[in-house]
Amino acid sequence: MTQLKLLIAEHFDGEVWRMEIDPVTHTLFAEIRKSEDRKVSFAALGLTSGKTYFKNHTIDESWLTGIETAYDGVLLLHYYQTAGSPAHKGLAAIEAENGQVLWHNFNYTFDHLSANGPVVFDNRLQPPSYKLANIKTGAVQRNYNAAIDIVADNKIILPQVIPLPDNFPKLPVEPHRNSVHYVEHNSLRIVSLHAFWAGQLRQYLYLYQDDELVFEDILNTNIQKLQPEAFVLYHNQLIYLKDKVEIKVLNL
Fold first, then answer.
1. What's the N-to-C CA distance of the chain in angstroms?
2. Which of 85, 113, 211, 225 sees the fewest Cβ atoms within 10 Å?
3. What burial class does residue 11 get, using C-beta atoms within 10 Å of its C-beta: 0-12 exposed, 13-18 middle, 19+ buried?
4. Nearest CA to 53 among 26, 77, 71, 34?
């Protein structure tokens, strides 16, 4: 029998807008937004220890910033060019264990995370010249080299959206449109789905081992439209959101 253990159940005063995992230190970062107050804050959770490193953490820019990436114990944030533009401009680096600002550069723009660190360019220069930056100091290390600065593998597995498999055990609810988010992990079969209950659309999560239901949770209630994928797998952990305001991590 699989031994399931809830490692993290962290509730936030705002909606979890984005999550990012640092594959080096196994830290989960979250961006929390409160649209009515135009406030954004950040959190860091240890996926090995279950420890909350920081929560409700803010920087000087209280709204026009967000998560870009995470690597080697550092959370990389971006700024926005203007309030009405989705374009990113400028970067700030945050230490994972204490939330300390390590550096910021308002001329850098993030391009992608490579296996050797972040690739950035100076937004004042055209055409862009891509550089590998040191995420801990912000210093440019060298020119970007596509042959060795390959895209980093974040080790995250996303579920597939498929019709419910014919050989799947009987579920407690009927999947809306017979569609589920599905993944198999070791001896577990994991699904999330939408279903109607008392005339309202809900989102559910179920874990089965063989034909036995071993874990379940209600992810959202009284929702107005179908939600995106409800969970991801990272190494031997199931990470999911509940009611958009709580992050749960289940050791599988």
1. 11
2. 225
3. exposed
4. 26
